[in-house]
Amino acid sequence: xxxxxxxxxxxxxxxxxxxxxxxxxxxxxxxxxxxxxxxxxxxxxxxxxxxxxxxxxxxxxxxxxxxxxxxxxxxxxxxxxxxxxxxxxxxxxxxxxxxxxxxxxxxxxxxxxxxxxxxxxxxxxxxxxxxxxxxxxxxxxxxxxxxxxxxxxxxxxxxxxxxxxxxxxxxxxxxxxxxxxxxxxxxxxxxxxxxxxxxxxxxxxxxxxxxxxxxxxxxxxxxxxxxxxxxxxx
Length: 234
What we know:
Helix content: 10-25%
CATH architecture: Clam
Structural class: mainly beta
Number of strands: 13
Distance between the termini: 38 Å
Strand order of the largest sheet: 1-7-8-9-10-11-12-13-2-3-4-5-6
Number of domains: 1
Largest sheet: 13 strands, antiparallel
Strand content: 35-45%
CATH superfamily: Lipoprotein localisation LolA/LolB/LppX
CATH class: Mainly Beta
Shape: globular
Order of helices and strands: HEHEEEEEHEEEEEEE
C-alpha cells in the first residue's frame, strides 16, 4: 500500500499532472451558462427533483476515496461522513484503510477540528474538505433559485437545471436525475467544482460512485465509492 499523502493537498495542490494543461483550458473556457426558463408548470416538479439529489434526514455514509494529484500520484483513503440537513451540519472522519484516524472535524455555524494528525493539521485543510462535502451532500444555501435549460436554448438532449444563487455571487447548478450533476461557479462566473454521480452500485437511493473535480492550476479529482449508507434516527 502506498503511504498516505496529506489530504490537505486536495485543496491546495491536487491535480492530474498529465492533464494540467487540459484542466486549465477547461477552467478558462467554462463560464456560467445562461438559462432559458422552463415553463411555469414545470418549475415545481423540477425544484423537487433537484432537492431529491440531496439526502433528506440524518445519514451516515462510508466511502472509499481515490485521490489524484500532482505528479500522477494516487492515494486510497476511507471517509466516514454524517450529514444532518435539518441542522445544516457535517461531521467527518478521514482514515487510512487500516482505520487510523487522520482527521476528524465538525462544521455547523463554525468549524471545529477534533483531531488532526500532522500534516493534516495544515491551515485551511479541514475547511476545504468540509466545503467539498457540503457541496456533495447538502442543498446549497441560496438567496433565490432559478430553473431553466443551460446554454440559452433547449436542445433535444439538454436537461434543465436548478440554479442556486448564493451570497457574494457564488452560483451552483444542480441537474437532477439518476446520474445527477452539480456545478459550482465562482463570483466571476468561472467553473470551480463539478460533482457527477454514477448510480451503479448505489444503496438506499444514493449513487454508488461520486466524482468531484476541482478545476484550475491547483485542480484535483476525487473518486468516491459508496460502501454503506445508514439512516440515523435520534
